[in-house]
Prior knowledge:
By secondary structure, chain A is mostly beta strands. Chain A has strands at residues 4-7, 10-14, 19-25, 32-38, 45-51, 56-59, 62-67, 72-77, 86-93, 99-101, 105-110.
Amino acid sequence: GENVEQHPSTLSVQEGDSAVIKCTYSDSASNYFPWYKQELGKRPQLIIDIRSNVGEKKDQRIAVTLNKTAKHFSLHITETQPEDSAVYFCAASLNDYKLSFGAGTTVTVRA
Amino acid sequence: NAGVTQTPKFQVLKTGQSMTLQCAQDMNHNSMYWYRQDPGMGLRLIYYSASEGTTDKGEVPNGYNVSRLNKREFSLRLESAAPSQTSVYFCASSNSGRTQYFGPGTRLLVL
């Protein structure tokens, strides 16, 4: 099955700086790559996703890039704010149903 | 719309006891999922139902059974609970190829 590795496991940034989280996947047939944000004690919520026919996607302060050749994708958060503090999960999917998640990155934004 | 709801929110079981976790969605989604979340391991798919009347194993199905009762409801059953099943369980739903929406989760402690 698909194996997704996520780095770093923890990330501390100064408010206003950028944060970057990287994920690699094992199966070159994977074609869907969502990112979820989970605040403490809450449910995961989708923040952005990208499909394999697109190299980059941006939504305000959040962007995701995909390198199919290297089988890795990254989440970029610019101008970080305290409300960006959360656990972020990347995932990869071979079909429309089975998501394989990374282990998560705990992001702390220091005021 | 309530979205995805789960019951109970919290449960304590003794080893060997059985229980059923309930999940319902009111978004008219075709697909439903059960995940477990353990510290440092992200979310792992237990079972999913691509459409009403079908169920398939995910990454960690051993020790669990599921029932897709109708389009709205998808239950997860533990026949003989083990301490290794102590976890947070999330139900999710989606339409094919689209965002998975998660429920609030069920915290299960098996003693």
